[in-house]
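Annex B. Sample input.
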Amino acid sequence: MSTPAGLLERMVEQRVSLRLKDSRELAGRLLGLDDHMNLVLDDVEETTAEGSRRLGRVLVRGSNVISLTASAGLPPKRN
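Annex B, continued. Sample output.
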């Protein structure tokens, strides 16, 4: 069985979408993560009720993430 961190490691360099606790949505390329599920994203676009804006590179605290979706699905498992 895969761990959440293991699944996320397979998604590095893939486009992902996040929903945060404060209702914001972020979409960008996952660059990396740590043991606390903090995420580094690049080419990020933030969407709120007021509109959208480009943020560039961001660090998202893992405890603020409600959901994460892979834009292109999960890549094959690496050996």
